Amino acid sequence: MAERSRSSKRCAVAINPQFRGSRGGVGVDRISGLANDLLGHILSFVPALEAVRSSALSRRWRRAWTHTPDLKISDELHQERFLDFARAVLAQYGEAPDIPSLNVGIGCRSNLGPATTAWLRDAMPHVVGSICVEMDRYSLEQLVLPSSLQAKAMALNLSSNFYHKPLLIFPEHPEPAAFSRLTELRLSNVKLQMYGFGEFLSSCFPQLTKLHLRSVYNMTGEQGLWPLILHMDMLEELKVDDVYQLTLLQVVAAKLRLLTVVHCFRSLAALTTDTLVKISAPRLEVISWSGRFPKQLNFLTDVRCVRRLSGLLVYWPSISRIDFSLPDVVHFLETCSGADRLDVCVDIPDGFKPSMVAREDFMERIPCLPNIRTLSLTIITILRLLCCPIGPSVFSFLRRCPNLTLLHIDLSTLHQFTRQDRHNLVFPDDDADTEAAKPCQGREYDPRKAHKEQLQLGSLRKIRISGFVGTDPEMDLADLLFGVGATLPALERISISSFAQLRDRVDRIALKMKARFPLTGGRWEITRWEEIIWTKNNDGRRDKHSTDASLQRSSNVV
């Protein structure tokens, strides 16, 4: 109690209009003179408990917390008295009839009973901005939504337990305008028990522009299978992520621009059912698709507006895996052939090398993509491989994208153990002086093979490689991109980044790159962010002296 009294006195001195500074001068309390809206904005950055405690500072601050635009209520600081505190805060806020935004976080099991769900149901109708409910460690049993809302956005994440999802109950017969103000809806880790969920959203949420469904399960269909049918005139962004047991995804949205589908057709029940996706979205610009495709994928409108494809996963051929999804990926790429940006993950199984026939078949099945200008490839392996076929897998896509201007290759997952601990490096540290003095090719490097497989990428301007540590397969990849015989007349910049754990290796990797790839017309250097870059000289001539000096200065810094 004495400590609390001293703390209150210190706070009172801090906000006093005139107080004695540390050097004996007189200071002025400028914060208390701010408008209520500004004080409320300041208090919105702290939890509600701390905001309410500010009332003890002075009479000016007594009601300042009721003007906060974002009310954050959590049981982290008062687990045993959470519900009493939440009720008191809502009652105090009652003098201002509307709550701009309500953010509730619950992590204690004792606060997840019926009384808490009743309080949530009573609080939600008072919110006019956004509602966010987050379960940190446990989950509710169920949540019944109020009969109407005036909020514009709502995000509900009702469980952190993968195996237990609470039941979310919508009102059976809501008023026509009950949810008409809601423009954003995010539901995560919930269970439904209603027929025609998509039709319900379409009719009762007419103003939705963003709809995100993640880990949503509907128990009404046979074997858990259910359709999701959406007809929304205002919808611009739709994301369905791990929506279990979907048999049909039908979307009719004239303004839809972004469509994301993640792992919605991977259940055993869905594999034995005729799954179907039908999309009618004439303004669709971005499609992100991860996981299995349905047995039928139909775009009912022209997809020439689609500019970006992302999330795609293909498997490099191996003895241990047959990629049944590749035909679906090829069909998808051919359907959306007008896209100019492509993001692909290439999964390379560990321990098995594909035969020459399988490799050539894989390369031939990748369709020609002349409209792709930006290509991002992420190479994935579970274990760290010395003989990982990085170059061939990248080459399979580069040869099909002749008009590339920007290329990004992410190798970070190849070194997932190295990122955690640099001592997990499975290749010996090379000697920087030896590499710089002896600019010879790697032991698997064959100039004739390089000339044979060099690409004609006349439009390529920028190359970015992340997660690079300088192993032999990675150097072979560099040979493929800008080694001997490469034809890259438009190349302006190469950027290569590694990991923070390998900062002491960056200078040696840079010298290794300079010795092996003395590209004319530009220079290698290390930036202050530990990034190795090659940039084209403005006059088109290579400045050897400035290159050596730059690398030497960077080495000294490292």
SS field, number of helical segments: 16
What is the 3D shape? Answer: globular
Low-confidence stretches: 1-25, 431-452, 540-547, 549-558
β content, as a range?
25-35%
User: By helix and strand content, what is the structural category?
Assistant: alpha/beta
Q: Which value, in Å, is the CA radius of gyration?
A: 30 Å
Cα distance spanning the termini = 54 Å
The main sheet comes to: 17 strands, mixed
Number of strands: 25
In round numbers, the mean pLDDT is: 78
The share of residues in helices is 25-40%
Question: Care to describe what's here?
Answer:
The protein is an alpha/beta fold. Helix content is 26%, strand content 25%. It is built from 16 helices and 25 strands. The strands form 4 sheets. It has a 17-stranded mixed beta sheet. A 4-stranded parallel beta sheet has the order 11-13-15-17. The protein has a two-stranded antiparallel sheet with strand order 1-2. Helix 9 (356-365) runs parallel beside helix 10 (390-398) and helix 10 packs parallel to helix 14 (472-482). The longest helix has 14 residues, at 2-15. The protein is globular and about 75 Å long.
